[in-house]
Amino acid sequence: xxxxxxxxxxxxxxxxxxxxxxxxxxxxxxxxxxxxxxxxxxxxxxxxxxxxxxxxxxxxxxxxxxxxxxxxxxxxxxxxxxxxxxxxxxxxxxxxxxxxxxxxxxxxxxxxxxxxxxxxxxxxxxxxxxxxxxxxxxxxxxxxxxxxxxxxxxxxxxxxxxxxxxxxxxxxxxxxxxxxxxxxxxxxxxxxxxxxxxxxxxxxxxxxxxxxxxxxxxxxxxxxxxxxxxxxxxxxxxxxxxxxxxxxxxxxxxxxxxxxxxxxxxxxxxxxxxxxxxxxxxxxxxxxxxxxxxxxxxxxxxxxxxxxxxxxxxxxxxxxxxxxxxxxxxxxxxxxxxxxxxxxxxxxxxxxxxxxxxxxxxxxxxx
Length: 367
Known about the structure:
This protein is an alpha/beta fold and 367 residues long. The protein has one domain (99-363). It contains 13 helices and 14 strands. The longest helix is centred in the first third of the chain and has 23 residues, at 2-24.
């Protein structure tokens, strides 16, 4: 009898969520907190017959009843009871600082932090030769080329990383590479020093997000602006307006937006107020936007990079009459034909070194 009761309770525990979910789904948290599109229901056709099992499994995993609550429970169990410092690609540091220590093909942020993925001498020479070739080709078109490297958050705020995650050696692969690029006379700049100089007195990265915040983006934009047009406005000469508390994409990956929602936010006011900028063309779905301004500089700037370029949009367009922002995923070489580009900025965050390692392929539209 007891065995039957146990079996019945076990079956009910499996079936109850699926039976209850349709009745309560409109009243519970079902938001997608992941930085991707959830898997759709598979196409039921003979042409797709062999793919249906795998596609259905992906769909079920993404749309499982009460998924957000189970993920949140799993996160709390792993961090509070089992003492884990990382859940998936997210590392939980001191004072609840969250870090994106992703490890996928072409991207290994934790290895960057630990300094265990250094380039060989041969790899460095190959990267230098490729960038030299690209720089020369772009310059021959009458376009100035600038390459900027944005640091990972843990590079700036390593004091908040868990102590059990050790750092080996004195420098990361990027720190070892950049001096070699500079020695070769290449137009590359490290944004780390500018950000580090302010990071103690100001928070320059979001606590619960992968990106720099408006303060950090502004600081970076001024180093970029100095390289581009020879001028900058120090942070001390603009006004920081504090906004409401916020969460971020890393908290979303843990399904703990409500628990991690007290980050400080700012907007930057008073930067070149005499210059007006408007967005004249945009497609947020692919990461493309064009700005026009009444800047006295009638040149055109093209900014190609990863998601870290989004934070620069309030600032760089004030330096040029026309500014085009495009992400790596949306880039096509035809942009150089469609727009009369004068200056070209190429920017990626430290963990995305595949975009630095394969610049020729990226600019051909095949990277």
